[in-house]
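[Primary structure, fold]
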Amino acid sequence: MTESHLPRVLVIASDTIGERMAGSGIRYWNLARVIGQQQPVTLAAPNTVALELPPGGMIASYGGATEDQRGRALVELIRAHDVVIAQHLPYLYADAELLASRFLVVDLYAPWVLEKLEYSRIDPERGEPNRKDDVAILGRLLALGDFFLCASERQRDYWLGALTVAGRLELEHVQSDPELRSLIDVVPFGLPGPMPVPSGPGPRETFTGIGRDDPILLWNGGLWNWLDPLTAIRATGLLAAGDHPDARLVFMGTRSPGAQVAEMSMVEDARRLAEELGLLDKHVFFNEWVDYDQRHNWLLQSDLALSLHCPTVEARFSFRTRVLDNLWCGLPTVATEGDVLADLVQVEGTGITVPPGDALAVSAAIETLLDPESAAPYRARIATVADRYTWERVAEPLLRYCLEPVHLGERRADHSGQRYLHDLERLYTETAQYARELETVVAEKNRALEEQASGRRLPGQRMIRRLRRHG
């Protein structure tokens, strides 16, 4: 097939693309990069991008002041391509006809509906309307997709269940492909290439409180509410009070560069705990974010990395992408047991796993990995495992599909009635939330009026009654 006849691929990033990227942006940048090595590809970003893809790829922005403008920009991009790869398409929720006319690859590598459960658990009034929106959008994507991606075999089991309920498993699929790899396959996160070399400043140059020989314990992911930086801080306190008074815990990124991700309460909780324990800016340091192409300098200066989470359903199906960066830079990991990459750490011997919330176990694991002789076997295994996770290797199922895309049978079911009911439910939820907020405002107002009345009862009594009567 000549290049002019190769399918044109559109990779839609839902998060910021640029020098400062979070996990989602990093994933779509690299998928577009490797696809561009074999066929025409466009990376669509919600922001204006100064970076350039290698030859074979181009970048377009679907940014806009309103949701309608962003939606129209995406529609035009989709019309100009044959294969569409996306994780989340809120602006095209109702546009089944357009999506059905293209080969749609749905990327399920991050089970965001489970993340939204955590948002809702912490803040139900704000989280629930968004979560219900996302569940409806996910149902739409499951009904319309032609090929699905996930990050692990455990995730694949989860999503096969969802696809079964969505009616996407048919006898003809199993007859031709008993494992159903042509329906959903594993495309995890990848590594950019061989182990890097230092090229710029890291934590030692950033924080004056970190000495040249101080051991650095690096937290190289975000501070999301379902993660457990508090145990990392407590473990650092134990080390500082014991045999490692020079231990330094560094949080590499506390503020996501993506406009879609707000700062979470865990950031403030972590700072507060570090301050209460007398560790802030002495043994525990917080950085805002590190540019994507500079992150290796922080990893290479560190002695080990931490990946700790709370015991939630999100953790069971997550894929902690930053753990792979540890492999890339030869860094052993201390990880909470229970997620897929913690299993890899344990089985492959690239670090030590610990029970959830156990600061003593974390501090003991850190002590082991800070000892050169004890850490040597772990470091020896890392390079072998890292070779299996280059982007070119992990993306192979997707690369094959993009060259020869196929439709997954019938997918034009009319869900307009379901969508109408969903819109009504959303309107009810938002109205109820507004009513609760209004009740709070009125209660505060009445309380203030009562306090005022108790102090100046005679002159203001009639006015108070009038205010209460007319709101």
Observations:
- DSSP finds 20 helices and 13 strands in the chain.
- Residues 456-471 have pLDDT under 50 and may be disordered.
- The radius of gyration is 25 Å.
- The CA atoms of residues 184 and 451 lie 64 Å apart.
